Amino acid sequence: MTNRIVVAYDDSEPSKRALEHAIEAARLTNAAILVAHVLEWSPYSFLTAEELAERHKRRNEEVSRAKQAVVDPAVAELKKRGLEVDTEIRYGKVAETLIAIAEETGASQIIIGRTGHSTIASRVFGSVAGSLAQVSPVPVTIVP
Question: By CB atoms within 10 Å of each CB, which of 5, 37, 47, 129 scores lowest?
Answer without folding.
Answer: 47
